[in-house]
Specification:
Layout lengths: L1 E4 L5 E6 L8 H8 L10 E4 L7 E5 L8 H17 L4 E5 L3 H13 L18 E5 L4 H26 L7 H12 L5 E5 L1 H7 L2 H7 L7 E8 L8 E11 L8 H4 L7 H15 L5 E11 L11 E3 L5 E3 L7 H15 L4 E6 L3 H7 L4 E5 L2 H14 L3 E3 L4 H5 L8 E2 L7 H10 L8 E5 L5 E2 L9 E2 L4 H9 L3
Parallel strand pairs: 1-6, 2-4, 2-5, 5-6, 9-10, 9-13, 12-16, 13-17, 14-15
Antiparallel strand pairs: 3-4, 7-8, 8-10, 11-12, 14-17, 18-19
Helix pairs in contact: 2-3, 3-4, 4-9, 7-10, 9-15, 10-14, 12-15
């Protein structure tokens, strides 16, 4: 996609609110005919072969329009133009934040994961002319930042959309090394034997049945020598999940290549943070493994040890993600000494039941930290909902034979899963758990996101640190 400032070529785009009035005959005609009303995402095209080509795009009601509405509206617009084989357009823009949202929406319209399609067709170059009162430097900087953001979001989406036949612990680790090391990120990868020496017993219990052996991936980006603060990210990295002996049905397995959605988002965020050279100190941990079945599988009823020394009763082997996170979160908080930590995981069906595919569920032990993250998420157009936390929920994770049980029962399952992880946050440092089971991988399109992987919270994590530059 190519962006140009203050050219006036191609389809002329005009945006309208529901309340808009316009004296042009075309606008009045289509409005009176009920062909266009200005509602959010609505598009009307007038594409004569020998005259000015026009496109109307609706933004909804003017008094409640948001930046995210621009992403959605312009994604819909470009999809319609591509369907009509129109690849050049002119847009008038009032401010930089609106420009970034429009550019993001346009990029979303072009995303597809079709690498295994033999008849795939590459899009022609799309040329976008922007009419605005920006300096050349303001324009170039805004476009570059948004392109960097979308490049890393697409990177994360591609990781999560990739099938487990090709993306498994070893190949994921190789991708991280090859993609992040050149950006100045220190990447350390530990194999199964090294993980044993490190005491990552809970993580290894989940991964031990697979012929594709686990990898423990640590990423370090240290670019603020003036600060002692180190932010930690942990992403669930289960590259395929059968459920283990608590076996999923076939219908529940077909998309389980996406069970490393948290890892995809964390890796994408680290990539973006480094590309934008943010002044920050960040470390990220991904415990990559497959949850498979064999004679060596861990089993319901087992009691397993963790890096922290705490024991875990395995009530359900399909609640494996939180077990891998137990060692990952403890490693980050105890060994790496992070100041604050965020974990992201496709963790529970309970979250999807409660919030659908629209909101990420969250639990936290620090309201101020969560409020900062929620602000970053809102600016990204990524919705997060905080769940209640108290000792009544914590009590559901109690075990009669171990320090903690890996399920808390049917009720409040998203909350009890998050609170299981809380047991492994060392020194009670500020912590946020993000359950992205619904938002990381969509069963059908939502706003400007196609079905499949979304790269959810790459932008949120970037925004959270970008405010500290």
């Amino acid at each position: 996609m190519k962006f140009q400032l203050n050219d006036n070529i191609g389809v002329q785009v005009k945006q309208f609110f529901v309340e808009s009035n316009n004296d042009t005959s075309l606008y009045n005609y289509v409005k009176n005919k009920g062909l266009f009303s200005g509602k959010l995402g609505e598009v009307y095209l007038n594409l004569p072969f020998n005259d000015t080509k026009e496109a109307f795009v609706g933004l909804g009601h003017e008094d409640i329009v948001t930046i995210d509405n621009y992403r959605e509206a312009y994604c819909n617009l470009l999809k319609r133009l591509i369907d009509n084989k129109e690849y050049e357009l002119t847009i008038s823009v009032e401010n930089i934040e609106t420009l970034k949202a429009i550019v993001e929406g346009l990029y979303h319209a072009t995303y597809k994961f079709d690498k295994y399609k033999s008849n795939r067709v590459e899009l022609p170059e799309i040329i976008v002319n922007i009419n605005a009162n920006f300096t050349e430097n303001e324009f170039v900087d805004a476009i570059k930042e948004t392109e960097d953001v979308m490049d890393s979001v697409f990177f994360a989406r591609n990781l999560v959309n990739e099938r487990s036949e090709y993306l498994y612990p070893e190949t994921l680790a190789n991708i991280v090394v090859d993609s992040l090391s050149p950006l100045g990120i220190d990447v350390e990868v530990y194999d199964e034997k090294q993980c044993e020496e490190m005491g990552l017993k809970a993580f290894l219990s989940v991964g031990r049945a697979s012929a594709r052996k686990p990898r423990f991936i640590v990423m370090k980006y240290m670019n603020d020598s003036e600060s002692n603060e180190v932010i930690g990210f942990v992403g669930k990295g289960v590259t395929y999940d059968t459920g283990g002996y608590s076996l999923k049905p076939t219908s529940g397995m077909t998309t389980m290549h996406c069970d490393m959605g948290g890892a995809g988002s964390v890796i994408g965020a680290m990539r973006l943070i480094a590309k934008r050279k943010l002044k920050a100190n960040v470390v990220a941990v991904v415990a990559a493994c497959e949850n498979m079945i064999s004679g060596s599988s861990y089993k319901p009823g087992d009691v397993i040890y963790s890096l922290s020394g705490k024991t875990i009763e395995v009530d359900n082997t399909d609640a494996e993600g939180r077990i891998t996170l137990a060692d990952s979160v403890y490693y980050a908080t105890n060994k790496l000494k992070v100041s604050k930590i965020i974990d992201l995981a496709t963790l529970t069906g309970a979250c999807v039941v409660a919030l659908g595919e629209f909101y990420t569920g969250s639990v936290t032990n620090n309201q101020q930290f969560f409020d900062e993250l929620k602000c970053a998420a809102e600016n990204a157009g990524e919705r997060v909902w905080q769940m209640p936390v108290d000792n009544s929920y914590r009590a559901l994770n109690k075990s009669s034979v171990a320090d903690v049980k890996n399920t808390g029962g049917r009720y409040g399952g998203m909350i009890t899963a998050g609170l299981f992880i809380e047991n492994f946050v060392d020194n009670n440092i500020p912590w946020i758990h993000l359950d992205i089971a619904g938002t990381a991988y969509l069963t059908k399109p939502e706003k400007y996101l196609a079905s499949g992987a979304t790269g959810i919270h790459v932008k949120t994590l970037f925004n959270l640190l970008n405010t500290k530059k």
